[in-house]
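If I may wish for something, please sit down with the protein I am sending here and say whether tokens and residues agree:
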Amino acid sequence: MTSDFLAALPAGARADGLAFRVKSPTSLACKIDDRVRSRLLPAAVAAEQLQDVVRCTAVAASPAELVGTARALVNGLAARGWSVRGAEQSYLDEHGQPAQHACKGLHLVVAAERAGVACEVQVHSEESIAAKHDTHRECEIERDDTVARPERARAHAVMVERWARVQTPPGLAELRELGGVALVAKAYPDRYAVGAAAPAGAARAAERAGARDYQERLRAARTTSRGTTRGRDGR
């Protein structure tokens, strides 16, 4: 993946963080644990669904160049056998309004049969990658459930404030697809907003209902794609 990614980078863009392109065992364990708890999945199934074990980041020189960089990168990867399997952005909400998130970005999931694994590709601008690096410490605090809730809430607020100063890439609102896959708005619910915490019983019931729905959709997807899933995703 790395050599194809570097070859597909358009002029004026650069790679970032390639030394950390493979998630650490600690990070993987945290993500699997989060899915086990939030979706009530067995650990093996949660691990199987991860699509960002390998992650490459492209950085455009400015927000104005981010959309063009994403398009050119997708075309370059397609020429090398990679296809887009998922595309999401978190700058704008589903109504096209600026989102108040603790993290923003344009993320793709790409796959190639010969690679044997799906990979995540993030596209940032120099402005947004700076915000990501600036809030790394707060991000680690906010995602650590062993940290006291008030401290996590403060970290979340710092992240939201920092990302609010990052420009929404021009042309993103008009971008409907990448590589033939619909670009969707990803929401990051504010767990610390007033009234955000549901009663434990209700929250647990909703969590179970969501997990059942997720598992049903997962089984349906596997049934309809049986015989091709292994070739596409390397499972």
